[in-house]
Hints:
alpha+beta; 2 helices; three-stranded antiparallel β-sheet
Amino acid sequence: MYTATSGALVAQSAVDTIANNLANVNTPGFKQTLLQVQAQPQTQLYRIQTDPGRVQNALTAGVPAMEPIGTLGSGSEIYDTPSDFQQGAISSTGNDLDVALSGPGFFAIQAGDGTRAYTRDGSFTRDANGYLTAANGDRVLNTGGQPIQLPDAGTVGIARDGTVTVTQTGLGQDNVPQVVGQLQVVEFGNISALRPQGSSRYVDTGAAAPAAATATTALQGSVETSNANVVTSMVGLITNERWFDMNIQMIQAQDATTGQAIQNVGRSTPT
């Protein structure tokens, strides 16, 4: 019963994880969550038998025999829920403030409380103070770790290395791009140490080993789409729902068997 219960709990967690992936298939820069499952500790079963010679007053001592039958599993459990950082498809938007990353890097952003996070969601906007911000309002950082502030007017250009320029007109500098900063793009030596924090943001747990990007390029006017696969997720959803139902049936069967045993033992007449 406990083995089936552990299986049902894992299946329920799998359904929740897949449902979250499906809910974010249209979220730019979203990375699907995987579910890693492992078996709980197993117990080795043996068949133990003693020769009749071990009976009291026997002339010869008995020889115990122990033969292995096999292992008894105690169920399954969740090992980890890592993110799948596989590159998503690049979609053109035509928006000058949208930036997609091609490669393993992340944008560095700063939350309202001053903490730093990282994201692949490059659907940026300009806030009321002119700062370049992520979709959730976090400010985008430059290579010096400071927020990037844009002029009130002008055409924004973003180069493949992340350099941000603004071309203004009517100020005596027509068609002369002015550099206002460079996007801080970070790559990680141990990407598995990044943990999701919501809103397509990730935080470094302390072991991710961030470094300047060398294999990532920025693409203006595009965003990276979610890497969640609708077809695969739907199949996984159906499979895990059936797995959950089967474990529930096992629990019900064991409960009925236990109930019958209790009733029969309670009604038996000693002889």
